[in-house]
Amino acid sequence: MNTAHHPVQLTVQNHIAVVTIDNPPVNALGVAVRRGLQQAITQAQADAEVHAVLIVGQGKAFIAGADIREFGLPPQAPALPDVCNAIEACTKPVVAAIHGPALGGGLEVAMSAHYRVATASAKLGLPEVQLGLLPGAGGTQRAPRLVGAQAALDMMLSGRHVGAQEALRMGLIDLVATSDDVQAEGLAYVRHVLSEGGAVRRTRDQTEALADRVKHQVAIDAARADVAKKRGLFSPARIVDCVQAALDQPFDEGQRTERTLFEQCLASPQRAGLIHSFFAEREVLKAPETKAAKPRPIKEVGVIGGGTMGAGITVAMLDAGLHVTMLERDAAALAQGIARVEKVYDGLIAKQRLTTEGKTAILERLTGATDYSALAQADLVVEAVFEDMAVKHAVFKQLDAVCKPGAVLATNTSYLDINEIANAIFRPQDVIGLHFFSPANIMKLLEIVVPARVSADVVATGFELARLLKKVPVRAGVCDGFIGNRILATYRTAADYMMEDGASPYDIDQMARAFGYPMGPYEVSDLAGGDIGWATRKRRAATRDPNAKPSRYVHIADKLCERGWFGQKTGRGYYLYPNGARNGTPDPEVLAIVTEERAKAGITPRSFTADELQRRYLAAMINEGAKVVEEGIALRPLDVDVTLVHGYGFPRWRGGPMKYADMVGLPQILADIRAFAKEDPLFWQPAALLVKLVEEGRDFESLNKA
Ligand code: 3H9
């Protein structure tokens, strides 16, 4: 077992068996590790020279959990619950010494040990819920026995990471080590345990933390009520059931309950969707330019424009610890921009999430300016000015004149041709699109839009900025709307067509919510303000190619805007918001406008079932997603998935539209599109890529792997 490449190594030091898990990058519990752990425990148990066992992780983690890549594949023995039970059954004291992540199955291994010591870097958690699962190796039974029902439920339902000090207070660990040398600290603790008599203290036999049954039942009932309110996810209610079993059932029976419920979670499509999301969120970071080039340093940044976007971007930059210069055209506009930034922090102070001193300290890194020369030292500048090509040209011309060589010049445009912006200045290699989503300090998505002439290190800098800002970056090519807004435009059009053809906006919103969206498209429009889209439509109307596809134009949104019904901020939009209400109520006058517009367009209304609405909405999204991949605007289908999940509210547990399409089956999606095309062949043109994949019997996932 001592060979260098074995993922579990056993050495005996002064009668202590040191079991080291060495499975980079994060010591996931793949089959070889499970086998190795089981053998090591057997060996330590059998060796009369061994008085105690220490389990430690090599590298940056204790153990990050089960190997997520194995889920969905045929199971291989030994199963993790059996390994954990073997560790706990050892008749010699077993100590887990934890540094870095001890998550999911990793924490379950630690809880099966008889004692736990952790360094300050430890992050303990049961994040299975984020993968559509529950702790399935005894964790739902052992955690309540260590920390009580409430704390166990909190960990398992939130999936959050707990630091060493908190873990100590909870009773999850026995000691916080004074140094970072996890092995030395672990050995010292084993010696301490032995000096105290070396009792074997099995978590399964602990009764104290669950002694007050009434209190724990209250916690379980509260958690169950809370989970019932949050519709959608499958595993949380199962987690609550498991904790109930921990309270009611003997350990072995509780573990059987856990197993049954774990297998239900494993079989659920949500597990497949969430695990797809987990890997997709990591794959998007690996754009070719991030491998080919090193990012340029970013410390000082400039933001041009103090409007909603500019202020949001400024806050995002400040929150990342950067120094920001906000540029506006005059003192009055600048004051408004700075006020928008301050408003965000004042909101945090009101919620007691920030102190006044904290705000002052943050704002010390913000400088206001009205002269471009203030941007001379900026490493990166993002412009968030009016969406007009002439205005953008003027801004970039100024930047070209004042910025230092090597400064990254970014535009936050949501649809303008960034190649045209870049080509008009002397340093097109430095120009990139950084498309933030509103509110920019909150929304996770950052589209990194890559024009033709940009250099690789500028693209890498975009990804580095996303890392600093804790955003989810997706590489996108230049086209009208890039990945997200282009796909949005298509499925919004599909929704508008359904509305004009006979559905009410309320039915469409209801369908989207039932699918898992937090809001439907018309609720989103009311929240964002209908005037923004209206202004864009008017601006584009002048240049709209009358022969452009799709040629059908639904006027309903414009009719609402003409009446000044922009949504929540004006008290009405698609919905009524009496007295500043946040949740709207349906508006008969809107329905009357819809009816009128239908009549004008000569449409005899038809009825749609919820299923029909959903199929059209999703098919439009998937078909445009396929076109975006086919044209290379998105690198892979998974980039579309991450974009729609993190920028457009697509339910993460469904994995994204392309993953959803794979789960439905591409032949079904294509058949739907062809059926819809019989009525409207112009709008419903199947993507060539979709047709090809169906012909070849492949799915989108096959392109993610390529
Ligand atoms: C579980 O345990 C179920 C049990 O209860 C029951 C079983 C019966 N497996 O995130 P990073 C990869 S469910 C496989 O970039 P960081 C990751 O894909 C599990 N691979 O690093 C990436 O690969 P690549 C419960 C994994 O430092 C590389 O490691 N556990 C796993 O930012 C580096 O990851 C979790 O849910 C895994 N478990 O963050 C923890 N974990 O380089 C999930 C990571 O090829 N993991 N990889 O792209 C995490 O939260 C973070 O990865 C962690 C490190 C905090 C550990």
Structure description:
The protein starts with 7 loop residues before the first strand and ends with a helix. By secondary structure, the chain is α/β, with parallel strands linked by helices. The radius of gyration is 29 Å and the shape is globular. Helix 4 packs across helix 7, helix 4 (139-158) packs antiparallel against helix 8 (235-248) and helix 24 (610-630) crosses helix 27. The strands form 4 sheets. It has an 8-stranded mixed beta sheet, with helices on both faces. 50% of the residues lie in helices and 11% in strands. Helix 1 (31-46) links the parallel strand 2 and strand 3 (52-57). The longest helix is centred in the C-terminal third of the chain and has 21 residues, at 610-630. The chain has 3 domains: 8-267, 2-enoyl-CoA Hydratase, Chain A, domain 1; 294-479, NAD(P)-binding Rossmann-like Domain (Rossmann fold, 3-Layer(aba) Sandwich); 485-704, Orthogonal Bundle (N-(1-d-carboxylethyl)-l-norvaline Dehydrogenase, domain 2), CATH 1.10.1040. The chain has 29 helices and 19 strands. The chain binds (S)-3-Hydroxyhexanoyl-CoA (3H9). (S)-3-Hydroxyhexanoyl-CoA binds at residues 25-26, 28, 61, 64-69, 80, 101, 103-105, 108, 127-128, 131, 133, 135-137, 139, 282.
Question: Features of this protein?
Answer:
single chain; binds (S)-3-Hydroxyhexanoyl-CoA; 706 residues; 50% helix; 11% strand; 6-stranded mixed sheet; 3 domains
